[in-house]
Design goal:
It is a single chain. The protein is elongated, with a radius of gyration of 21 Å. Strand 6 and strand 7 form a beta hairpin. It is α+β, with helices and mostly antiparallel strands and 221 residues long. It contains six helices and eleven strands. It is an enzyme of class 1 (oxidoreductase). It catalyses: a D-alpha-amino acid + O2 + H2O = a 2-oxocarboxylate + H2O2 + NH4(+).
């Protein structure tokens, strides 16, 4: 069955897109979107309300954590490459460009099967987020001006008004990808106690976060 037909059968929130001049096939859907900086602040408030605290420390081994807690959950992302160690952890660099929204109230995404790019834009409070890239084993954390220009140009081919929008910021992040996929499993801590691994989510952190968290909590016991 065609993907559009399959999704359209789920309800009024999705239908096959047949009126796009430059697309052979597509879907028009209504879905919730997250503004990540706002979402992360909300999660931190939930943690504080539950009695948790956030501390910044340098950890070179699980023995340090084992000395303070009977159970440790390892959510170190790319840091797991050295800490576990797990040689399967690899950075996938992503770059976004944020522009003043020229009046766009719908989001768009299209993957390019011939490259590592996906063209997308998402309206959010305070701007329009444009993307994107997925560069494996690229650890640069500074914005690349040429990449920013290419992102704007690709998005403007879909919505021409984006070309003249004023750039108000750039975002660069390293997705914590893992050969073999997400790792959620338990093992022993040095000296006793329980170590639960929960890392390797790549670019799907929000999508799988709640399910992985529930499984990690179950493993902690």
């Amino acid at each position: 069955m065609h993907g559009g037909e399959r999704f359209a059968g789920l309800g009024p929130w999705a239908r096959q897109l047949g009126d796009a001049a430059e697309e052979a096939a597509g879907l028009r859907v209504t879905l919730p979107l997250l503004d990540m900086p706002v979402h992360l602040r909300w999660l931190e408030r939930r943690l504080a309300a539950a009695g948790g605290t956030v501390e910044r420390r340098t950890v070179t081994g699980f023995g340090q954590a084992a000395a303070e807690a009977p159970a440790v959950v390892n959510c170190t992302g790319l840091g797991a490459r050295e800490l576990v160690p797990d040689a399967g952890m690899r950075p996938v660099r992503g770059q976004l460009t944020v522009v003043e929204n020229p009046g766009i109230d719908e989001w768009f995404t299209r993957a390019d099967p011939a490259s590592s790019t996906t063209t997308y834009f998402f309206p959010q409070p305070g701007g329009l987020v444009l993307g994107g890239t997925a560069d494996v084993d690229d650890r640069r954390t500074e914005p690349d001006p040429r990449t920013a220009q290419e992102i704007v140009a690709r998005c403007a081919r879909v919505r021409p008004e984006i070309a003249g929008a004023r750039i108000i910021g750039h975002r660069v992040g390293l997705r914590p990808a893992r050969d073999g996929g997400v790792r959620v499993e338990a093992g022993p801590l040095p000296g006793g106690g329980r170590l639960v691994h929960n890392y390797g989510h790549g670019g799907a952190g929000v999508t799988v976060a709640w399910g992985c968290a529930r499984e990690a909590a179950r493993l902690v016991g």
